[in-house]
Amino acid sequence: MALSFYVHIPYCIKRCGYCDFNTYTPNELQDGATLEIVSNDYIDAVLRELDAAPKDMVPTIFFGGGTPSLLPPDDLGRVITAIKARNGLTEDCEITLEANPDSVTAEKLQRYLEVGFNRISFGMQSSKAHVLAVLDRTHEPANVRKSVDMARAAGFSSISVDLIYGAPGESIDDWRESVVEALSLDVDHISAYALIVETGTKLAAQIKRGDLSMPDDDVMADMYLLIDELCGTRGFSWYELSNWSKPRHECQHNIAYWQNKNWWGLGPGAHSHIDSKRFWNVKHPTAYKQRLFDDQSPIADSEQLSASQIKDESILLGIRMREGISLELLGPRQIERLADYRENGFVVLEHERALLTPTGRLIADRIVREITI
Predict the structure, then answer these.
(1) Residue 322 carries which DSSP code?
(2) Which of 45, 90, 246, 287 could staple 292 via S-S, CB 3.0–4.6 A?
């Protein structure tokens, strides 16, 4: 068996207006605190949680957040070293760092490589200053290219950028410019996510007041089809609903999620999946650390997936992928429902598998609902 690790770093200098992730600024955790103060013993707590995980060989480690690149490389390296010593890493183990373009230097990037990272993912979101302003992003657009070039010069073998489309005020031409800019960078992988306005965020409040308005669904669909087309012209192949890569640069960690493999999430609010059991940790960093330093489990709750849930999730996750789903997973009624989508050009059948077409990807959730209810 193999076991992937996700390591959550729950700290940010500033909360972005659209963000609903389990992240905290130092001041939210402690009045007047600095990042060094609130994160000082955090890695110690993570290493305590690691002791509870299975000892299977590790093919991927992913440090997400938050902003992992805010922490010193040697602190993050302690986690990699501990996992390697305890579990062992596969020869081609993929170790990813999520990074804000403003938070890296040439020296830090070199050190991240030295402690074990080999893949880096920069939060680009957009190349347009007015879109970044709406999203409350802090980085300068020009710093994305600078950071990518520094990472490549340092020796990172795989570099990704994340984009977000559908921000209030973003036109199709704005989006085209952002995608063209991303494709002009020396990167191997691009992720693009439709903006989801989460209740309770600053952006949701702005939209509710009428200060901002979202693009309509047709524009959002055109934005998705545009990036799919432009990526294809530059040698980036679609391999999952929101991801494109050059050959052999697919994100193996995320593929482990989509294939329902085993992974352990280290950190507050992190989710894990081990042999059809799903569980998750307490969300607040202070409560997380306190439990571990008191020799208590940080797990908040869990659920055992039933056979039907496992089957439905195989359909839900598998259909997102380039390889689609095997017809063996489906019953006669489900295959009959898929036939309608096939006739309308949303699904194709190849080698006893159902695959989404580009327009089918736009309604993937609807198709899944139809065949799993």
Answers:
(1) T
(2) 45
